[in-house]
Every structure is written in structure tokens, then in C-alpha cells.
Design brief:
With 525 residues, the protein is mainly α. Helices cover 86% and strands 0% of the residues. The protein is globular, with a radius of gyration of 24 Å.
């Protein structure tokens, strides 16, 4: 890359790194609260109710996705494209999306409410699920509208506010209300009430957050009628594959739970979803960067700077790999200990499925970035076809394996389909965008993890693993892992510059800003 491009790359990487610090705080709090919410449900109500809640949430998510019509995801791309050059177009797309989403949300709510008992009893043989689905149906239009408002926040790069609403407020209010409602004796209704109120709260806060943008857009002139029609066609052409992609994506990641619920019991679904919940931790690393990554690459793509996107993608993939490799090793070596500490001995049946899913989950942690690269190019139909093919594979494998092998069979079938999907994405990104988002130094990083892994494997045979020892072993592993990464030259000059920039940023904006001498100095002035 030439000097100017390298300077721009560093600027973009710094933006991603600084943005990731903000997101990191939100994501860590979010994950802690999310897992606390699920742990409280699992430990208080047991595997059956936890399974019913998981299945109900999946059905609810499918209706949300179908009712959204892909418009919230489409808004994210088109606002990023037009906000600097066409406020009138942005105004029209937002107004159009809100009206259509509200209408489709009401239809979805009506359908789910009417067929709640049929879905519960005929598909999953669970009468407990009916009430869950009826309450969730009322929340469908509220949730769809909040997704529109949240997309507006993301498109205008209001990362801090978006992170607070989605990661902190939403999960925090759920946990707080769940505990309060359990203490006052609401039983299973505590789950429903806490979840519904959190959805309503997110909708209100997200609207307030983007209200200034909406008010400012009111003063923009309306575009011509023929331009509206052309824009609507283009917008729908991009968004409708995302509608099916979103629904199929949910099915892809929840086919195993559906099949287990059909062939086995809600209790088995509860066991399996413990391992699935833990594997979701591999999504933290990509989530740190993706909220800013997509707007940045869309901006660079509009300037036809493919080399910039290529280098940015490789750098982010390496960061994700560095962060997720220790998590994979800990889950693979200590699956039972992790489950027992968080969810209790009652859920140890998920130990083998967690080990299997962890391998595929780590491999799949790059899929969000690759999907973003394809979306940048407008290849939503390609993403759709990839997910359709692998969803069929996933369904067939689960139908074959679950009746005989239960949740272990589901883990095997799902892991195979995840790996196939990601291989397809690598091929599509190479063919469509001419990018292979891998760096050679990732091999060095993998080698750097070998010595700490061997040490951890040996130690586990000589000690009893509990919460305290697991924390100590994890810290020891991470320390040795990081030391070897630095000593083996796994980081390039961009990484070191970013680390120095983060250190300087933290010192100036957090540590030094709150230092007693600085505070006293400001008071004296």
C-alpha cells in the first residue's frame, strides 16, 4: 500500500480499536447480564422451562425476522450510502420502512397469537409453551419498530448510545425485573413479564435516541414520485433476500433445537441450549468490531478502495482469532467444569455437545465479517443461497442423528453444517470481492497457544477444578499465551501502533482524567 493509503488504514484501524473499547464495555456487561438471566431461569425453573423458553424465543425471533422484511438491515446500508449526499432519500427510506414494518408487525402478531396453541402442542408437545408464545406475539410490532430505530442509530455511528441500549439497558432491566418478579412469587410469569417490559423499554429508548435525526430529516424536501418508485425497488431488491436470509439464518442456528424438541423433549432442549448459550461467547470478539466495520468498508467501497478493505479485513480477522483461541481451548479442556460452575450439575448432560460445538463455534466466528464483505458488494442473494444450502444440510443431518444420538447427534450435525457454511463464505468472498481475509501470522498465533495448552492439560489431572481454580488456570493460560505472542513476533507494526494508541487513549481519557492530582488541579482552577 502507498503512504497515503497506509495512513488511512491506520486511521480506520484506530477508529475500530477505539470503537471496540466502547463496545467492549457494553458487550462484556451485556454478556454477563445475558448469562445471568439465563442462569437464573435455568437454576430456578429447571431444564424443562429453560427449554420451553428457548423454543418460544426462537419462534418469536422467526416472526420478528419475517415481519421486519429485511428493512432494518437495508436501512443500515442505504443510510450509510446516502446520508452524506441525499438527505431526502434517507427521509423517504426511513418513513417507508416505519410504515411497512408497523403493518407487517401487526399481521405477524395476529398470526402467532391465533396459532400459539397449535405450534406448542402439535409441534413440540408442550402446553406450557402456549402462554409464552401469546405474550411474545404482542411484542412483535414493538420489537420490529425498535429494530428500525436501532438501525438508524448504527447508520449514524452512534455507537455509545446503541451499545448502551442493546447491551446494557435491555439485558440489565431483564435481569433486575426477573429477580424482583421471582421474589414476589410470579413463577414462570416472571420470565414473560421481564422479557416483555425490556422489549418495550428498548423501543422507547431507541426512538428517543434517534429523535433528533428524525426531526432534522422532516425538513428535507420530498423526492419526486418516480424517484420514490425507483428507490423503493432498489431498496426492496437488496432487502428481500435479507428477509429470507434472516429467517433461514435463525432456522439454521436453531434447527437442532427444533429437531430435538420434536424427537425428544423440552428438557433435552434445555440441556442442549446450555451448550449453545456458552458457544455464543465466540460472538463477542467479532461483535467488538462489526458495529463500525460495516459502515467503514461501505464508505471505502464507495471510493473503490478495495486494497484498504482487504488490509482492514485481514487485520480484524487476526484480532478475532487472537481473542477466540483461548476461549476455544478452555471450553474444550474443561467443558464439564464450565457448565457445572455456571448452570449446575443438573445440566452436565451437555458436556460432550459443548466440546463439539466449541470447535465449530470458533471456526464460525469469522462468518459475520465475511457476510459483511458480501453485503458491502450488495451480494445479499449470494448470502441467502449459502445459508439455504447449509440449512438443508443441517436439517438432514439433525433428522438422521438426533433420534439415535440425542443432543450429541445435534451437536455433530450442526457443527458440520457450520463448517461447510464458513468454507462456502471464504470461497464467495474470494470470488466476489477478491479478498482472502487471512494473515500468515495466524499460524504463529496458533503455535504460540500449544505450550500453554499442554501445560493446562497436564495440570487438570492433578487438581480439582472449581470456580477459583478455573479462573487461576485461565489467567495463567492467557498470560503465557500473550507473552508467547509478543516473543514470537505474531504482531505487526499496525497491531503495535494500535496498542500504543489504545494505551495512550485509556491513559488520557480514563486514568489521567480521573487522577486525584488532575481533579484537584481542575477544582483549584
Amino acid at each position: 500500500m502507498d503512504k497515503n493509503n497506509n495512513k488511512d488504514l491506520n486511521k480506520s484501524l484506530k477508529m475500530l480499536a477505539r470503537g471496540s473499547l466502547i463496545v467492549l464495555i457494553g458487550v462484556l456487561i451485556s454478556k454477563i447480564l445475558t448469562y445471568l438471566y439465563k442462569i437464573v431461569i435455568a437454576r430456578t425453573f429447571g431444564p424443562e422451562i429453560f427449554g420451553v423458553f428457548s423454543l418460544s424465543l426462537t419462534v418469536f425471533s422467526i416472526f420478528i425476522t419475517l415481519g421486519s422484511l429485511g428493512l432494518s438491515e437495508g436501512l443500515l446500508r442505504y443510510i450509510a450510502l446516502y446520508k452524506g449526499i441525499g438527505g431526502s432519500k434517507v427521509k423517504h427510506l426511513i418513513k417507508f420502512s416505519i410504515i411497512i414494518s408497523l403493518f407487517s408487525g401487526l399481521i405477524g402478531a395476529t398470526i402467532l397469537f391465533i396459532f400459539a396453541e397449535t405450534i406448542s402442542v402439535n409441534l413440540f408437545n408442550s402446553y406450557n409453551m402456549t402462554l409464552f408464545l401469546k405474550v411474545f406475539s404482542i411484542a412483535i410490532p414493538i420489537s420490529i419498530l425498535s429494530n428500525i430505530f436501532l438501525s438508524i442509530l448504527k447508520a449514524y455511528e452512534k455507537v455509545t448510545l446503541y451499545t448502551f441500549i442493546v447491551n446494557i439497558f435491555s439485558n440489565g432491566i431483564k435481569v433486575l425485573l426477573l429477580i424482583i418478579f421471582i421474589l414476589v412469587g410470579l413463577k414462570e410469569n416472571a420470565i414473560l413479564s421481564s422479557y416483555f417490559i425490556s422489549i418495550l423499554g428498548v423501543a422507547i429508548l431507541s426512538y428517543i435516541g434517534c429523535k433528533k435525526v428524525l426531526v432534522r430529516l422532516l425538513y428535507e424536501k420530498d423526492i419526486a414520485s418516480n424517484e420514490k418508485k425507483r428507490l423503493n425497488r432498489e431498496f426492496f431488491s437488496y432487502s428481500w433476500p435479507i428477509l429470507f436470509l434472516g429467517a433461514i439464518n435463525i432456522l439454521f442456528y436453531w434447527i437442532d433445537s427444533f429437531v430435538i424438541g420434536y424427537f425428544k423433549t423440552a428438557t433435552d432442549v434445555g440441556f442442549y441450549n446450555v451448550s449453545f448459550t456458552l458457544v455464543a461467547l465466540f460472538g463477542i470478539a467479532p461483535e467488538l468490531f462489526m458495529q463500525l466495520f460495516f459502515p467503514i468498508i461501505v464508505r471505502e467501497y464507495s471510493k473503490k478502495r478495495i486494497e484498504m478493505i482487504r488490509e482492514l479485513s485481514k487485520q480484524v480477522v487476526k484480532w478475532i482469532f487472537i481473542l477466540n483461541l483461548p476461549l476455544l481451548i478452555i471450553m474444550f479442556i474443561f467443558p464439564g467444569a464450565v457448565i457445572n460452575i455456571l448452570f449446575g450439575q443438573e445440566f452436565l448432560a451437555a458436556e460432550s455437545s459443548l466440546r463439539i460445538l466449541a470447535v465449530a463455534g470458533a471456526f464460525s466466528s469469522f462468518s459475520t465479517l465475511m457476510n459483511n464483505l458480501l453485503s458491502m458488494k450488495g451480494k445479499s442473494k449470494t448470502i441467502l443461497m449459502n445459508i439455504i444450502v447449509t440449512s438443508i444440510i443441517n436439517l438432514v443431518l439433525n433428522i438422521i442423528l438426533v433420534p439415535s444420538y440425542g443432543i450429541v447427534g445435534a451437536a455433530i450435525g450442526t457443527s458440520i453444517s457450520w463448517i461447510i457454511l464458513n468454507l462456502m463464505l471464504f470461497v464467495e468472498v474470494k470470488r466476489q470481492v477478491s479478498i482472502i481475509p487471512l494473515r500468515r501470522k495466524m499460524l504463529k498465533i496458533a503455535i504460540a497457544s500449544i505450550i500453554p495448552t499442554i501445560l493446562l492439560t497436564v495440570i487438570k489431572y492433578y487438581i480439582s477444578v472449581n470456580l477459583f481454580t478455573l479462573i487461576i488456570l485461565t489467567l495463567l493460560f492467557v498470560f503465557l499465551y500473550l507473552v508467547l505472542i509478543f516473543k514470537m513476533g505474531c504482531l505487526d507494526k499496525n497491531d503495535l501502533e494500535i496498542l500504543n494508541n489504545i494505551r495512550s487513549y485509556v491513559y488520557k481519557n480514563i486514568l489521567y482524567k480521573n487522577h486525584p492530582l488532575r481533579v484537584n488541579d481542575e477544582i483549584s482552577h
